[in-house]
Amino acid sequence: MNIAIVCYPTFGGSGVVATELGIALAKKGHQVHFVTYKQPVRLALLTKNVHFHEVYVPEYPLFQYQPYELALSSKLVDTVKLHKIDILHVHYAIPHAYAGYMAKKMLKEEGIEIPMVTTLHGTDITLVGNHPFYKPAVTFSINKSDVVTSVSESLRADTLRLFDIKRYITVIPNFIDMTKSHISFTDCQRSQMANDDEKIITHISNFRKVKRVGDVVKVFFKIQEKIPARLLMVGDGPERERAEKIARRLGIEERVIFLGNSNEIEKILCFSDLFLLPSEKESFGLSALEAMSFGVPVISTNTGGLPEVNQQGFSGFLSDVGDIDAMVEKGLYILSDEKRHKIFKENAKQTALKFDVNKVVLQYEAVYESAFSNMLT
Ligand code: GMT
């Protein structure tokens, strides 16, 4: 199939899922065309069957806001015609589903019928999309998609609760390429980050408010009072400065390392002992799954789709949002006993196996097939 994938190219869950899916589809022989405003961060252009089409929005003094949706839908029309695209797969409803639908309508005028699959990722529904400014357009473009998928049961339920949706929503969970976690422990260069007697606790996110990065630092503070440890904060975003201030206020700035955005996530997870994800909302929690695939137990909240990923008392523990003491207690429980820690590490890896990319890609291929018969007129 010739597949056009529309996604955000930046660090962040939906872009990573879209990119990894495209790469997996390309490996299976599909021609995959990424259409977005920048080369996606995890995409190597020299990959067989992978193509990248940049959406360029020229500046014009009249525009206070650049009309990205317009440029994207035009680019989609051109790409579909030039590369004989069979299917559009848009990730994140805003504004991709809307732009995709406009492209579909323009193509129809020229006698080209193309199905559109929309994958909902989380904040496009629970945070941004639900805002009255966007809600009518988001509802409309979801209802106009030929197939709608969501990354968890929880997100499916949220979508049906918050929007007036007329389409069936198929749940296809996020996934992981387990072959990436087969690096041997000696490759990890753990000593660069911590002393032998110190545990490494890791958090990875885009440091938005919803991630509660302040809680990460507070949980770590209480853990390191009992067990020698270091905290690796990976990623960047609006809440980073606040997290840095909290670390300074608590007098642990030496033990908290802010690494910024990194292309070495695999290396970092390889030497991590515990992963913290205390989010306020999380439709899935891809970073938790990535950690688990490297055998890193997860302390997370029980919000959204996290209970579908992190197994209570098996791959880690889940607590109520903001319950720092419970997270500390469970973190110490895992880290304080080597034998127990080892069991949790194995369990985390075993749980991650359920989300293997090879299983999930088959589900997307089936959805593409069904999109042709679902096609709305
Ligand atoms: O977490 C974010 O704010 C980024 C966002 C995205 O779309 O890039 O992540 C959402 O999609 C990910 C991939 O499907 C999910 O793993 C995240 O749980 C989800 N984030 C939230 O629901 C907050």
Description:
The chain is α/β, with parallel strands linked by helices. It has 2 domains: 195 residues, Glycogen Phosphorylase B (Rossmann fold); 178 residues, Rossmann fold (3-Layer(aba) Sandwich). Helix content is 42%, strand content 16%. The protein contains 14 helices and 13 strands. The strands form 2 sheets. It has a 7-stranded parallel sheet, sandwiched between helices. Strands 10-9-8-11-12-13 form a 6-stranded parallel sheet, sandwiched between helices. Strand 12, helix 11 and strand 13 form a beta-alpha-beta unit. Helix 2 crosses helix 3, helix 7 packs parallel to helix 8 and helix 10 packs across helix 13. It is elongated. It starts with a strand and ends with a helix. The model has no long low-confidence stretch (mean pLDDT 94). The structure holds ligand GMT.
Helix and strand arrangement:
Layout: E1 2-6, H1 13-27, E2 31-36, E3 50-54, H2 68-83, E4 87-91, H3 93-109, E5 116-120, H4 123-126, H5 135-143, E6 147-150, H6 153-162, E7 169-171, E8 199-204, H7 213-224, E9 229-234, H8 240-249, E10 256-260, H9 265-270, E11 274-277, H10 286-293, E12 298-301, H11 306-309, E13 316-319, H12 324-335, H13 338-353, H14 357-374
Parallel strand pairs: 1-2, 1-4, 2-3, 4-5, 5-6, 6-7, 8-9, 8-11, 9-10, 11-12, 12-13
The structure holds ligand GMT.
Ligand GMT binds next to helix 1.
